Structures are given as structure tokens and as C-alpha cells.
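Dear support,

I submitted the protein below through the web form. The confirmation email said the job was done, but the results page showed an empty box. After a refresh the structure appeared. I'm attaching both so you can tell me whether what I see now is the final result or a partial one.
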Amino acid sequence: MSQIDDPKDSLHQAIVFDVADWSVTSRMTWVYGIIVGWDRDSLDEFKQKFQWSEESCQWLIRLHEKFKNLE
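What the results page shows now:
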């Protein structure tokens, strides 16, 4: 297995290749959203499932963008 020296990429790979369903709990869904991101349809589903507001969804989108831009 090759090493990944970028901590952001390492986190991303650890999550996307994990067998867990990252949409089961609000907390896991939030972590996945920051590191990997969710599409709009998924966010709309989570608004209902977890009673998230549109403001919360927009906040998660901003956090994901900021995470992607970390150096």
C-alpha cells in the first residue's frame, strides 16, 4: 500500500473506502459532508431525516469548501 502524505487526501481516502454508511447518524453525515461533500439531493434528504435547516446545509457546504482549500 502506498503512503499518502497529504492529510486531507488521507482522510478523504479513509472515508470513501470505508464500508460504513456515513449517512446513518447526523454526526457521521456531517463529518462526511465536510471532508467528502454531499450533492444537493442528499442534502435535501438530510434536511428531512435530521431536521436540518437550509442554513445548516449551506454551512456544511461552506465548511466543505474551506476544507478543500486548506493547505
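Response: this is the final, complete result; the empty box was a page-load delay. The chain has four helices and no strands.
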